[in-house]
Amino acid sequence: MMETDFTEADLSDCKFNNCNLKNAFFSRTVLKNADLSSSYNFVIDPDDNLIKKAKFSLHGLPGLLHKYDIRIG
Question: What's the distance, CA 70 to chain centroid?
Fold first, then answer.
């Protein structure tokens, strides 16, 4: 699912199974209860997208904190 534009999509309750989301675009996307725990290479701004109760793995944290330009490791 690389380079997919998810702008304003309602992806509530979706399960992203082992998806490479490199260069996918999330803006005003609804991800309530979505499961991205096995997905990778994503950048999702929690301030611009609804991620309430979405599931992420620890390796996905850098993609959620990308805009802060911090190092995790």
Answer: 17
Domain range for 42 is: 1-68
Q: Nearest 5°: CA angle at 58, between 44 and 73?
A: 95
Which portions of the chain are predicted below pLDDT 50? none
Q: Is residue 35 part of a domain?
A: yes
| Tokens describing residue 55 | 């599931």
Structure token digits, residue 12? 């509530």
- How much is the pLDDT for 73? 81
Partners of 32 in the β-ladder: none
